[in-house]
Specification:
With 133 residues, the chain is α/β, with parallel strands linked by helices. The chain contains five helices and five strands; from the N terminus they run βαβαβαβαβα. Strands 2-1-3-4-5 form a five-stranded parallel sheet, sandwiched between helices.
Length: 133
């Protein structure tokens, strides 16, 4: 299991990294450009991510644009919807517009507001068959 945490806030990034470490190999990025680069590199190496936790408000490129870029890249190389990386948006924002944009326009799989409730995250992981170990 390969996981990418794209989060500019140190405490949120560290918490997610430590928690998800029990689920697989975790890489971290601190801005949108790094997230796109990490995703592309993983694809090129033939070891794509299974899960990405992606913050909406990040420097350089915001999470919604990163999400859109990832989905476009997957589509351009023939990855089907069933085989796309699972993307969970994480954000301090809790507005209907951001939720709608993330799901409808950009294609995220789930959405968590901060502070992140780890029990909700576990539920999301279980929904996609992602288990510890």
């Amino acid at each position: 299991m390969r996981i990418l945490v794209a989060e500019d806030d140190f405490s949120s990034r560290t918490m997610l990294q430590r928690f998800l470490d029990g689920y697989g190999e975790v890489d971290v990025t601190v801005n949108g450009s790094e997230a796109i680069d990490a995703f592309s590199f993983a694809l090129e190496e033939g070891e794509p991510y299974d899960l990405i936790c992606l913050d909406i408000m990040m420097p350089e490129i915001d999470g919604l644009r990163v999400l859109k870029s990832i989905r476009e890249k997957e589509k351009s190389i023939g990855i089907t919807v069933e085989n796309e990386v699972k993307i969970v948006m994480t954000t301090a924002l809790d507005s209907t517009k951001e939720v709608f944009d993330a799901f409808y326009w950009s294609g995220c799989n789930d959405y968590l507001t901060k502070p992140i409730d780890l029990q909700k995250l576990v539920g999301i992981l279980e929904k996609y068959g992602i288990t510890k170990g």
